[in-house]
Structures are given as structure tokens and as C-alpha cells.
Amino acid sequence: MAKDNLPRVVVIGSGWVGLYSLSVVSPRLTSAYTPLLASAACSLFPFSCAEESIRAKGRRCNLIKANAIEIDFCSNQILCEPAFDDHDSNASDQQFRVAYDRLIICPGCQTNDFGIPGVVEHAMFMKHVSDAMALRKKLLDQFERASLPCTTREDACDMLHIAIVGGGPTGVEITAELSDLARRELKDLYPDVAPSMRITIYDVAPHILGAYDQKLYEYATEQMLQRGIEIVTNAVIERVDRTNLYIKGQNPVPYGILLWVAGNRSIPLVDKLDVKKPEHGLIRILTDDSLRVKKASTDVHGHSDVYPDVFALGDAADIEGRSLPTTAEVAVQKAKYIVRRLNRGATATENFAYADKRLVTYIGSHDGIIEGSGLDEASRGQRAWLDWRSGSFTWTRTWRNWVGLICAYVLNALFGRDFMRL
Ligand SMILES: Cc1cc2nc3c(=O)[nH]c(=O)nc-3n(C[C@H](O)[C@H](O)[C@H](O)COP(=O)(O)OP(=O)(O)OC[C@H]3O[C@@H](n4cnc5c(N)ncnc54)[C@H](O)[C@@H]3O)c2cc1C
């Protein structure tokens, strides 16, 4: 117990889940609204609208800027390492422990590079606001480079080839935003080189948007192809270097920007934890229906098979026997459940129930698809786009960001997107 006799609730991670809680161990000072990252990278609104500070006026939150390295469930302690870019080399000398009475584990996942050589070194990712900023800067640089008098037309084509690896909703939405940007602002800002820009989606599967019904993914594919986006399926990427993608059975493909959004893999903390995990697929922490972490082995003395005061949620966790998707929607619903549960005290018996939300993906040009709403006209087209765009306002959690978004949309309508300023 803490000095004031209140239980110490410690949260590992400051993503969609961590934002809902009291004290946080996280290497980041902000929590990203990931669904808004692609739009921010393409200057639909300022980057500040796509994230939330953990420390904020009026929010009682003890932020510890560190990575959780290990958890000792017997002594209720977390081993942590400071997380500062300029102290990485001796961070391990400064390890410290944080005690908890109740622990909420939500460190998310990392992007899966599948161990393909060159991906970590040369690809860009899209997980944090810093990634969205890096993409915008790279895009600007590539257009300026392509516009130099010494750049040949052929080189400009390679520089402006944007290769997106991963044809899930994230890859498709980034493609959609980039193609909107190209058709509007980039066409005016770089009239000579903008026609050389190409976007290609690569996916190892036989089609993109695998989570959708066949008619919907076929519709999305057809619409994007008509808008000049290239889609290469059954693409087995063998390696990547600074300028080329090497796909099995094909000639090297030159690229200017390589964006890797090919799915999730577990983080080292979750890999190391001695708790119950699924036998196949993504390594996640298994919990019971109340989100309490399951022990690795069954207790022969008939003791509880869960840690009663340790909860896990977000992308890093799943309820045993359920297989819920790794989405912000699931993370937010679980976080709200945990807050309700902790506020009501230990007697709470209600289980977590996931209210299935429709999956909406933007495919560009004010067009989109909605899974789970049948295959009628309402499940695609402008209505889906409106559904998706209005979602931007529901993701934000503060008035400041909400007002920021409205102002950005009004300014864009009046003056166009502010693409040139980072
Ligand atoms: C580009 C993009 C678009 C998306 N769009 C949608 C969408 O439209 N709808 C939807 O429902 N979902 C969407 N998602 C998925 C959604 O972002 C995730 O499901 C959600 O972020 C999961 O929340 P989380 O809190 O578990 O993890 P994260 O949000 O990943 O947060 C984890 C946090 O833990 C921190 N951390 C990591 N390791 C440690 C450690 N060892 N110690 C302490 N802290 C640690 C990380 O730095 C991070 O701050 C999108 C994802 C991406 C990448």
C-alpha cells in the first residue's frame, strides 16, 4: 500500500489503454490516436491532433518514463529501465523497481518485419506520431529531390514510387490518404514531377483487405486500381535494400519510400513473461473473462489459475478462447471495463463483454467500405467515407484536439492542406 493507504495501480504502456488510467510506466510522453496517423502524415490536420499528453493539467498521473523489462508476480514489482534516447548505452546501469498493488499490462505490439533482411534498416513504419512525421518529411524530401534540375525523369519515377507492404486496413488507409494528397495538393505544388508518383500495395495474400467479405474487398480493389493504385498480391518479399525490394520470382523493384505495415508481433517483455499464452499465432497474454492474467501452469493444489490483481489488455492480451482483434476499439472497451471494475472494488463480478463495432476502411476519393452491414449500397461508397471521417472526432479524447480538428478542416476547405510545413 502507498503512504496514503490507497492501492498503487501501475499501468505498463501509454497507448489506447494506458490513457484511461492513473499511473503509467511508458517510454512515451504521449498516447497516439493511431487511426489518425495516416491523415496527419498527409497534412489533413496538425500532428498534435493525433496524440494526447499523458501528463496534463488536472490529470492525476504519475508518469515514469521507462521501459518495463520484467515483472515479478511474487513480490509485486516491475523491473524498469529509463527510456531516453541519449542515455540508451548505460540505461541498464540505472534499472529500478516499481512496486504495485494492482497491475495493468498493456504495452501493445510492435510491427512485424518477419525477420526479412533489410526491413528494419530501410523501411518506414506507422505506429507513433514520430513515424507519421518521418513519413511527411520523407515525402517532402523525395518531391524536392525529384524536382532538382539534375534529376532525370527515370530517377524521379523511382524516387516517387511509394511501396506499401501490407494490404490490411492500415496499409489501404495510408494508400488512400496519399493518393488523395497526390490528386490535390501535390499536383499543384509539384506540377512537373507529381505525374511520376506511383503507389503500390504489396501483400503476400491472394487479395487485400482479408478481413472483409469478398464483394467488399473486390469493390475496394477495383476502385483503387481505377484510381491508378497498383496492387501486387501473392508477393513474397525476400529482402530489401536502400533502393530496391526483392520479390520472389520478380526483377528488383526500385522504390523511393518503403512503408511497412504488415501486421503485429509481440514485444520482448511479453515474450519473456511467465504467463499463459496461445499455442499458435501472435504471442499474447491470456486472461480470463475479467481480464485477469492467467498463470502459465495449473496449480495442483486447486489454487486460482489467475493473478487476481494483475490485468492485461490491448493488443498484447486476449481472453482465453476468444481471439479478439488487435484494434483500438477492443482496447478502449477493455480499458473502460477495467476502470469500472477497479472503481467498484474487489467484489465486482461482471465479465467483460465486447460490443462488436463495424469495421470501416477508407479507400480514397471519398469512398470506403463497411464490414458487418450487409452487402448493400450502404456498405460502401460515400456513406462509408462519412462514417470513417466522422470517426476522427470520436477517437479524440479532449476538447483541445476536437477543436483543433474542426479548425483544421475549416482551414483546409478555405486554403487547402498545409503540406509544406512540418
Ligand atoms: C496506423 C494504424 C492505424 C490504426 N487504425 C485503427 C482503427 O482505425 N481502428 C481501430 O480500432 N484500431 C486501429 N489500429 C489499431 C490500434 O492502434 C491498436 O489496436 C491499439 O493501439 C492498441 O492499443 P494498446 O494500448 O494495446 O497498444 P499501443 O497503442 O501500441 O500502446 C502501447 C504503449 O506501450 C508502450 N510500451 C511498449 N513496450 C513497453 C514496455 N516494455 N514498458 C512500458 N511501455 C511499453 C508503447 O510505447 C506504447 O506507448 C491502428 C493501428 C495503426 C498502427
Automatic annotation (TrEMBL):
It comes from the Eukaryota. GO terms for molecular function: NADH dehydrogenase activity. GO terms for cellular component: mitochondrion. Pfam families: Pyr_redox_2. InterPro entries: FAD/NAD-bd_sf, FAD/NAD-binding_dom, NDH-2. Residues 62-335 form the FAD/NAD(P)-binding domain. Keywords: FAD, Flavoprotein, NAD, Oxidoreductase. PANTHER family: NADH DEHYDROGENASE (PTHR43706), NADH DEHYDROGENASE (EUROFUNG) (PTHR43706:SF17). Belongs to the NADH dehydrogenase family. This is FAD/NAD(P)-binding domain-containing protein. It comes from Exophiala viscosa.
